[in-house]
Amino acid sequence: MWTSEGPDHRWGVFTRDELRAAGLSDGAIARRIRARTLHRLYRNVYSVAPPSLVRPEVRWLGAVLACGEGAVLSHRSAAVFWRLLEDRWAFVDVTTPRRGRKGTEGIRLHRTRRLDDADVVIVSGIPVTSVERTLIDLADVVPPRVLRRAARQAEILRLPVGSPREKANGRRGAPSLSALSFHRTDVAGTHSELESRFLRLCRRFGLPAPDVNVIVQGKERDFVWRSSRLVVEVDGHATHGTRFAFEDDRSRDLGLVRAGWRVVRFTYAQVTLEAAEVAAAVRDLLGLGPLLSA
Q1: In this predicted model, what pLDDT tens digit does every residue of 238-269 receive, in sequence order?
Q2: Cβ proximity of 249 and 236 under 8 Å
Q3: Which residues contact 44 (CB under 8 A, 6 or more apart)?
Q4: Does some domain include residue 13?
Q5: 243 neighbors 156 (Cβ within 8 angstroms)
């Protein structure tokens, strides 16, 4: 089990047993709850912050503590923890190796026969499944499109995904994982940097100003010239260099072409090293005159 600990990473969360060990009786705990200096998070778990002000970390740690020894944040909640998905679930997913324990309100409890040390990390005091184990668990409980989004985000964030396909044998989500190819690439410039470079290229070579990051056919596009029905996408490796992004980009392009748009893509190297050629190509597509020297 890998641990990343800093000073006082309990987020102001305590179990009843911990409060008793600190010298508080059940009556004293009840009085603090009435005085609103202590707030119930889950059964026998309390926070010094009121529910309206608690951070996600407080809710996650409280749920893990409520499920007893060996419990860890997992599934959808672990995916949110690792920034693979947005937090849109009202409950917290927790996995425990213990039998006989019941779930509690606000917690979706999962039981497992075993959790290896490599499956669990502790970050800022919160036990959570590793990225690899999170993807394996996630495949069991979300549609393939959501799993794909999480896997793509893991690549973009350059997280250690391990070998989830090989370790998911026998799991319900194994077929969904088998359909994915986990591939890592190096980053060669950020998405926002590349967009800025392309806009400077447009100004430098006198191209008409495009609309930037606007919705066309239900999807956000990088640069759009509506009167010419032209879309330009710039592909930096940080967001377009993964195998998932390659497939998604082609699917997006097909939808535009079928709707009567033209789509052209330029790479980081083309925008930065072949600016004149890129500008000339865009001018031709816009039906403008020949490129003047810049």
Answers
A1: 444 445 444 555 567 888 898 999 999 998 88
A2: no
A3: 15, 16, 17, 66
A4: yes
A5: no
